[in-house]
């Protein structure tokens, strides 16, 4: 052992403090001459402080426990009529993840959803699967070239692919409670970008993209210039077909909000009934039904 203090003797039974004995000197000379210490500077053996004392000095305080979830403060969201007038506010208060873990939780949920969308059908042919290649291209010796036994080597044009992709299952899992918590955290964090409106189905009774865009622009949302997410309680065919022709506009049902559309949107338009459903589903009055991991395809009516 190395340290600072009085010299100590080394014996087969352990280290004993005191004056250096002849046996300790012999063992120290042995270490100096051994292959492990050859070429290194060997310091004399000295007494070390007791281990318990060093542990008491370096004792650290216990880490603060991280809460799994907590109720977020109520976020007021402006309620607007389809004529652009304000008619009050409506609160959004959901049970969200702890700030220490929320970012990683939402990111993991997004990765899970995106990875589960992969078909995993990419496939290439190896040199043994490519048609042909049974003939040796040239003799083994005498040509000056590297020896070659097949015309379907990965080094040759028309040959197989080395270490190419093969069909595989990319599906990964995530706990149900984590999925709920991640989606609720993303919804709560998007509250500043939300605006609450009345029934979209009543505002757009017929299939007309121009009418839907005009209604959204009247409340200060411009789907032709920014990415917009429309969350409705019960989407109708007229709303779904009217929004389908706008590239930056996505329509989600309240019970099946897509995490990618939610994080990708610049502005979020929520029906009043849909916001009540979100508060009931992810707030203190937790619903019994589990929301879908991923919603319907954008612009598709339920």
From TrEMBL:
<dbReference type="Pfam" id="PF00573">
    <property type="entry name" value="Ribosomal_L4"/>
</dbReference>
<dbReference type="InterPro" id="IPR023574">
    <property type="entry name" value="Ribosomal_uL4_dom_sf"/>
</dbReference>
<feature type="compositionally biased region" description="Low complexity">
    <location>
        <begin position="10"/>
        <end position="25"/>
    </location>
</feature>
<comment type="similarity">
    <text>Belongs to the universal ribosomal protein uL4 family.</text>
</comment>
<feature type="region of interest" description="Disordered">
    <location>
        <begin position="127"/>
        <end position="151"/>
    </location>
</feature>
<keyword id="KW-0699">rRNA-binding</keyword>
<dbReference type="GO" id="GO:0005840">
    <property type="term" value="C:ribosome"/>
</dbReference>
<keyword id="KW-0694">RNA-binding</keyword>
<feature type="region of interest" description="Disordered">
    <location>
        <begin position="1"/>
        <end position="27"/>
    </location>
</feature>
<keyword id="KW-0687">Ribonucleoprotein</keyword>
<dbReference type="GO" id="GO:0019843">
    <property type="term" value="F:rRNA binding"/>
</dbReference>
<dbReference type="InterPro" id="IPR002136">
    <property type="entry name" value="Ribosomal_uL4"/>
</dbReference>
<keyword id="KW-0689">Ribosomal protein</keyword>
<dbReference type="GO" id="GO:1990904">
    <property type="term" value="C:ribonucleoprotein complex"/>
</dbReference>
<dbReference type="InterPro" id="IPR013005">
    <property type="entry name" value="Ribosomal_uL4-like"/>
</dbReference>
<dbReference type="GO" id="GO:0006412">
    <property type="term" value="P:translation"/>
</dbReference>
<protein>
    <recommendedName>
        <fullName>Large ribosomal subunit protein uL4c</fullName>
    </recommendedName>
</protein>
<dbReference type="GO" id="GO:0003735">
    <property type="term" value="F:structural constituent of ribosome"/>
</dbReference>
């Amino acid at each position: 052992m190395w340290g600072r203090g009085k010299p100590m003797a080394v014996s087969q039974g352990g280290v004993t403090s005191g004056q250096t004995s002849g046996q300790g000197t012999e063992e120290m000379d042995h270490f100096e001459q051994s292959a492990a210490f050859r070429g290194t500077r060997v310091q004399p053996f000295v007494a070390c402080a007791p281990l318990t004392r060093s542990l008491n000095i370096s004792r650290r305080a216990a880490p603060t426990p991280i809460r799994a979830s907590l109720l977020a403060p109520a976020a007021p969201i402006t309620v607007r009529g389809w004529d652009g007038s304000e008619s009050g506010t409506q609160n959004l208060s959901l049970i969200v993840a702890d700030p220490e873990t929320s970012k990683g939780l939402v990111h993991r949920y997004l990765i899970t959803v995106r990875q589960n969308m992969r078909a995993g059908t990419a496939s290439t042919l190896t040199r043994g699967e490519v048609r042909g290649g049974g003939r040796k291209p040239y003799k083994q010796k005498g040509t000056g070239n590297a020896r070659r036994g097949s015309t379907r080597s990965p080094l040759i044009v028309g040959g197989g692919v080395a270490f190419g992709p093969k069909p595989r299952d990319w599906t990964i899992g995530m706990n149900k409670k984590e999925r709920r918590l991640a989606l609720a955290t993303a919804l709560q964090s998007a509250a500043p970008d939300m605006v609450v409106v009345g029934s979209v189905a009543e505002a757009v009774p017929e299939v007309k993209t121009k009418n839907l865009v005009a209604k959204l622009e009247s409340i200060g949302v411009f789907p032709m210039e920014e990415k917009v997410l429309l969350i409705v309680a019960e989407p109708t065919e007229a709303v779904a077909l009217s929004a389908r022709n706008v590239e930056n506009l996505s329509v989600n049902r309240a019970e099946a909000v897509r995490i990618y559309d939610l994080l990708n949107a610049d502005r979020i338009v929520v029906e009043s009934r849909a916001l009540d459903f979100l508060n009931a589903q992810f707030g203190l009055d937790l619903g019994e039904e589990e929301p879908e991991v991923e919603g319907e395809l954008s612009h598709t009516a339920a």
